[in-house]
Amino acid sequence: MIYHDLLLAPGSSLIKENHAMIWLGIGLFFGIHIIPSLPGVRNKLIARMGENPYKGAYSVVSLIGLILIVVGYTRIEYQELWPTPDWASYLALVAMAIVFVFWMAAEMKGHIRKKIRGCPR
Question: Between vectors from CA 29 to CA 27 and to CA 35, what angle results, nearest 5°?
Protein backbone atom coordinates (compact mmCIF):
# COMPACT_ATOMS: atom_id res chain seq x y z
CA MET A 1 0.00 0.00 0.00
CA ILE A 2 2.76 2.44 0.87
CA TYR A 3 4.64 1.49 -2.31
CA HIS A 4 1.46 2.05 -4.33
CA ASP A 5 0.98 5.51 -2.80
CA LEU A 6 4.59 6.43 -3.54
CA LEU A 7 4.23 5.41 -7.19
CA LEU A 8 1.08 7.49 -7.68
CA ALA A 9 2.29 10.52 -5.75
CA PRO A 10 2.70 13.70 -7.79
CA GLY A 11 6.09 13.67 -9.47
CA SER A 12 6.50 9.89 -9.10
CA SER A 13 8.25 7.78 -11.71
CA LEU A 14 5.09 5.90 -12.75
CA ILE A 15 3.27 9.11 -13.61
CA LYS A 16 6.34 10.38 -15.48
CA GLU A 17 6.48 7.11 -17.46
CA ASN A 18 2.82 7.46 -18.46
CA HIS A 19 3.34 11.05 -19.57
CA ALA A 20 6.44 9.99 -21.49
CA MET A 21 4.41 7.24 -23.13
CA ILE A 22 1.79 9.75 -24.26
CA TRP A 23 4.38 12.23 -25.57
CA LEU A 24 6.27 9.48 -27.38
CA GLY A 25 3.03 8.32 -28.97
CA ILE A 26 2.14 11.88 -30.00
CA GLY A 27 5.62 12.34 -31.46
CA LEU A 28 5.42 9.10 -33.45
CA PHE A 29 1.86 9.63 -34.65
CA PHE A 30 2.21 13.25 -35.73
CA GLY A 31 5.83 12.89 -36.82
CA ILE A 32 4.98 10.13 -39.27
CA HIS A 33 2.06 12.22 -40.57
CA ILE A 34 4.31 15.24 -41.15
CA ILE A 35 6.88 13.29 -43.22
CA PRO A 36 4.73 13.15 -46.40
CA SER A 37 4.33 16.94 -46.36
CA LEU A 38 8.10 17.48 -46.52
CA PRO A 39 9.21 18.12 -50.12
CA GLY A 40 10.51 14.96 -51.74
CA VAL A 41 10.85 12.90 -48.55
CA ARG A 42 7.87 10.68 -49.32
CA ASN A 43 9.06 10.03 -52.88
CA LYS A 44 12.60 9.20 -51.69
CA LEU A 45 11.24 6.76 -49.09
CA ILE A 46 8.99 5.09 -51.67
CA ALA A 47 11.92 4.84 -54.12
CA ARG A 48 14.11 3.29 -51.41
CA MET A 49 11.53 0.94 -49.82
CA GLY A 50 8.89 0.42 -52.47
CA GLU A 51 5.30 1.66 -52.28
CA ASN A 52 3.70 -1.22 -50.35
CA PRO A 53 6.48 -1.52 -47.73
CA TYR A 54 6.34 2.27 -47.27
CA LYS A 55 2.59 2.11 -46.69
CA GLY A 56 3.05 -0.80 -44.31
CA ALA A 57 5.76 0.96 -42.29
CA TYR A 58 3.71 4.16 -42.26
CA SER A 59 0.69 2.25 -40.96
CA VAL A 60 2.65 0.33 -38.33
CA VAL A 61 4.38 3.44 -36.94
CA SER A 62 1.05 5.32 -36.89
CA LEU A 63 -0.63 2.43 -35.09
CA ILE A 64 2.19 2.16 -32.53
CA GLY A 65 1.92 5.90 -31.85
CA LEU A 66 -1.84 5.67 -31.44
CA ILE A 67 -1.55 2.68 -29.12
CA LEU A 68 1.03 4.51 -26.97
CA ILE A 69 -1.29 7.52 -26.70
CA VAL A 70 -4.29 5.40 -25.70
CA VAL A 71 -2.41 3.18 -23.22
CA GLY A 72 -0.67 6.15 -21.62
CA TYR A 73 -3.94 8.04 -21.35
CA THR A 74 -5.76 5.12 -19.73
CA ARG A 75 -3.02 4.76 -17.10
CA ILE A 76 -3.07 8.38 -15.97
CA GLU A 77 -5.25 9.16 -12.98
CA TYR A 78 -8.03 11.69 -13.66
CA GLN A 79 -7.48 15.13 -12.18
CA GLU A 80 -10.26 17.65 -12.39
CA LEU A 81 -8.90 21.06 -13.34
CA TRP A 82 -12.06 22.94 -12.38
CA PRO A 83 -15.48 21.77 -11.23
CA THR A 84 -18.16 21.52 -13.90
CA PRO A 85 -21.54 22.96 -12.92
CA ASP A 86 -24.37 20.41 -12.72
CA TRP A 87 -26.46 22.33 -15.25
CA ALA A 88 -23.73 22.27 -17.93
CA SER A 89 -24.59 18.74 -19.12
CA TYR A 90 -28.25 19.73 -19.61
CA LEU A 91 -27.20 22.85 -21.50
CA ALA A 92 -25.04 20.72 -23.80
CA LEU A 93 -27.97 18.37 -24.51
CA VAL A 94 -30.30 21.25 -25.39
CA ALA A 95 -27.66 23.01 -27.49
CA MET A 96 -26.90 19.83 -29.45
CA ALA A 97 -30.61 19.27 -30.14
CA ILE A 98 -30.88 22.79 -31.58
CA VAL A 99 -27.66 22.38 -33.58
CA PHE A 100 -28.92 19.08 -35.01
CA VAL A 101 -32.13 20.73 -36.24
CA PHE A 102 -30.18 23.58 -37.87
CA TRP A 103 -27.72 21.14 -39.43
CA MET A 104 -30.50 19.02 -40.92
CA ALA A 105 -32.26 22.18 -42.11
CA ALA A 106 -29.12 23.26 -43.93
CA GLU A 107 -28.69 19.86 -45.57
CA MET A 108 -32.29 19.19 -46.64
CA LYS A 109 -34.84 21.23 -48.51
CA GLY A 110 -37.80 22.29 -46.42
CA HIS A 111 -39.62 25.10 -44.66
CA ILE A 112 -37.01 25.44 -41.86
CA ARG A 113 -34.26 26.09 -44.40
CA LYS A 114 -36.34 28.78 -46.09
CA LYS A 115 -36.82 30.58 -42.76
CA ILE A 116 -33.15 30.40 -41.81
CA ARG A 117 -31.82 31.57 -45.23
CA GLY A 118 -28.26 30.93 -44.10
CA CYS A 119 -27.01 29.06 -47.13
CA PRO A 120 -28.47 29.70 -50.59
CA ARG A 121 -28.15 26.30 -52.24
Answer: 90
